[in-house]
Amino acid sequence: MRLLHTMLRVGDLDQSLKFYCDVLGMKLLRKKDYPGGEFTLAFVGYGDESETAVLELTHNWDQTAPYDLGDGYGHVAIGVQDIYGLCDRLKADGVKVTREPGPMKHGTTVIAFLEDPDGYKIELIDKG
Hints:
This protein is an alpha/beta fold and 128 residues long. Helices cover 16% and strands 40% of the residues.
């Protein structure tokens, strides 16, 4: 067994694709409209789905109100190089950094948090 993907419901698919692909550097792996169900699925990630876990962005065409993210969802984590420089660049591009980079509480791993266009939390973990 292996983890295949995590699904996030998004309000504006184009805005979400711009965030995940243009800002975070993922690739759009595949995208398909389902007119009968009135939704679109877009899969994004850093590698091929046959080898790595990816994100499934689901856009329901009739959804007009923001989704309730609930209190059970935590975050998606991404390993990065130069977390301090990256966060500076992301903030300059208008990305909402909700926790500045620095050592995690009760540890030494350097992390930061940001939000995607729908408010989902993304944890950056410095690997460099």
